[in-house]
Design brief:
alpha/beta
Length: 217
């Protein structure tokens, strides 16, 4: 794997995130506190793209969506639809395995208040682009939220105006790649009713149907 395809532990690209990372290392020396790597094998047919690591979730544990509320909903749904096996125990060594699925984030480092700035999203996009290019069996990408949706389009060189974000939308991209949209499975979205477990499961049911009906199934 080339140095350009993944950020190093002390990635210097975003000064604000570097400063925040240093502060977290000083306050929580036992946390991961580094760019969070993707989770899942490179044989994946489905790539799930979130926004950024949560402060007490992935930034603490070192695995995407692990240790916070969003992970509880995501991993239980993945297990229900056959994209994961094992028991999710909110830690990176719980033995949970993904099945033909991989998870990453548009921004690899934790941002203050979970809000990456546009320049930070742009700086990190090179890693998402490299990942998308590297996954030779990829058939579908699920974007969790509008920012992730836009990041995927940027990484693929697609125009935003041609593919508008909408929960439940399924966009046919170049070379047959499918881009699916869902509201992010954050506690805020579920508490406010913007996203319900049923709504989230509907997206995965459609993805499972489409992937199961593909030539590689």
């Amino acid at each position: 794997m080339s140095a350009a395809s993944e950020p190093g532990r002390d990635c210097p690209l975003c000064p604000r995130l570097v400063e925040f990372r240093a502060a977290q290392r000083a306050d929580h020396a036992d946390w991961f506190n580094a760019p969070v790597p993707s989770f899942g094998g490179e044989e994946a047919r489905l790539l799930i793209v979130g926004l950024a690591p949560g402060l007490r979730g992935a930034n603490r544990t070192g695995r995407p969506f692990t240790g916070d509320f969003a992970g509880q909903l995501l991993y239980s749904t993945l297990e229900k639809f056959g994209f994961a096996r094992g028991d999710y125990a909110e830690r990176a060594d719980d033995g949970l395995a993904l099945v033909s699925c991989r998870i990453t984030n548009a921004v690899r480092c934790v941002p203050p208040e979970n809000k990456p700035e546009p320049a930070e999203i742009k700086a990190c996009n090179r890693f998402l682009a490299a990942e998308l290019k590297r996954l030779q069996h990829l058939e579908a990408v699920l974007a969790l939220g509008a920012i992730a949706h836009q990041a995927v389009l940027a990484a693929l060189g697609e125009r935003r105006s041609a593919f508008r974000f909408a929960h439940g939308a399924m966009h046919a991209l170049a070379d047959g790649l499918l881009l699916a949209d869902s509201y992010h499975c954050s506690r805020y979205n579920t508490n406010t009713g913007k996203l319900t477990p049923a709504m989230f499961e509907e997206v995965f049911a459609e993805l499972r149907r489409r992937l199961s009906g593909s030539a590689r199934a």
